[in-house]
Amino acid sequence: MLPYIFIVLALGLRFASKPIAFTSVSAALLFFGARASRRNAWIAWVLCAATDVILTTVVYSYPLTWDQFVTWAWYAAALGLGMLLRNTNSPLRIGATSLLSSMIFFAVSNFAVWASYRTLYAATLQGLINCYLAAVPFFRHTLAADMVFTAIFFGLPLLLAGTAGDVLAPAAPEGARKRSTAR
After folding, report:
1. N or C: more exposed end of the chain, with fewer CB within 10 A?
2. Could you tell me the CATH number of the domain that includes residue 71?
């Protein structure tokens, strides 16, 4: 149930945190991929894509453009990265995966901005560099939010279960069958 709560919370925060880009979407997708049933990953993806459509067309009054598909592909990638964390509570692995997710989003989303908005950046290597440089201030907020919310989302269940000291024990994903030790 917690993966679903975190996704809804993350998407709600997107509506509230427009000025500073401090959201928990990446962390929620990683947690959902790691702890929810693989069969239900599409639910998180659809909710994120639907939120993008509402924010883009209704809240910001912009048209949907092809570069939005890059973000939607990243949602799937973040869920996939989360699935690599299914059997771990290792802070190092979780933190490294969160960092990787942030860096991938920065690289692909800003490449898409450069490729799709020719009025903002020249179609040259210098234009691409300028696009990435202009995005660095936003990346600081994104990276900070991703790391903070990843620590909260992955740490909270351990604290609630009273197992925060046992961070290296494998975590059972939602819906996983427990092996019987009785013979």
Report:
1. C
2. 1.10.1760
